[in-house]
């Protein structure tokens, strides 16, 4: 679990650094770039489509983990919009809160006992 936590920390730092560089060069407008890439039907668009689907799966998992409660739905939206910028810190907090219990971390409250 410590290696996983270290990986999450490295991902957070790397993403923040890379994002800062991109924003300083291109600004905050990712949506226009993604739309252009998708319309061009090239590899950049394919990557963006794949990325959007992964964001959707991440959002669905976060909302499901919280029982599709209002909190879970809100966190799902943040997961979709935030990507790894949300998911890595979220998983890091869950790993600590659940004391490294991966089943509890991934399945959520009340479901981990059924997996054991």
Describe the protein in words.
The protein has helices at residues 2-26, 30-40, 43-65, 70-82, 84-97, 102-107, 112-115. It is mainly α. It has one domain (2-109).
What distinguishing features does this structure have?
about 120 residues, mainly alpha, about 0% strand
Explain briefly what this protein structure is.
The protein is mostly helical and 116 residues long. It has helices at residues 2-26, 30-40, 43-65, 70-82, 84-97, 102-107, 112-115.
Element layout with pairings:
Blueprint: H1 2-26, H2 30-40, H3 43-65, H4 70-82, H5 84-97, H6 102-107, H7 112-115
Helix amount: over 70%
User: How many structural units, i.e. domains?
Assistant: 1
Q: Termini separation (Å)?
A: 18 Å
**Global geometry:** globular
Order of helices and strands: HHHHHHH
Number of strands: 0
Number of helices: 7
Structural category: mainly alpha
Alpha-carbon Rg, integer: 16 Å
Beta-strand portion reads under 5%
Largest sheet, described in full? none
The residue-averaged pLDDT reads 93
What low-confidence regions span 5 or more consecutive residues with pLDDT below 50? none
